[in-house]
Design goal:
Layout lengths: L1 H49 L7 H9 L6 H14 L8 H9 L4
Helix pairs in contact: 1-2, 3-4
């Protein structure tokens, strides 16, 4: 009798723990996806400024508004490197290469 009660109690605790941990991991994954998407949206707007296809009028103002925080080149590239690290991507190009890819050549 005691064994049966302990077995049922163990199953209930195991299922509860699995539910809690699974929910926690799903919330973390969802937050990471939202943060990564926000990073991508921001980088796309800055990329549109660095490599324009002749944006006109309100489109150009929108791009400038989205990229208002990217006033210093080195700070922006450092921020992108931090975004990559935060998103779990530790391998990739160096700071100089990211500077060229994101903001174009200084020449």
């Amino acid at each position: 009798m005691t064994t049966a009660i302990l077995s049922i109690f163990g199953v209930i605790i195991g299922a509860s723990l699995q539910y809690v941990f699974t929910r926690y991991l799903e919330n973390q994954r969802h937050r990471r996806e939202l943060r990564t998407q926000a990073y991508l949206d921001y980088l796309n707007s800055v990329n549109g400024l660095a490599h324009p296809n002749e944006p006109q009028g309100s489109q150009q103002r929108d791009l400038f508004a989205k990229a208002a925080d990217a006033k210093q080149r080195a700070a922006f590239v450092a921020m992108v490197a931090a975004m990559r690290k935060d998103s779990g991507n530790t391998a990739g190009p160096g700071i100089e290469d990211m500077d060229t890819v994101l903001l174009g050549s200084r020449d």
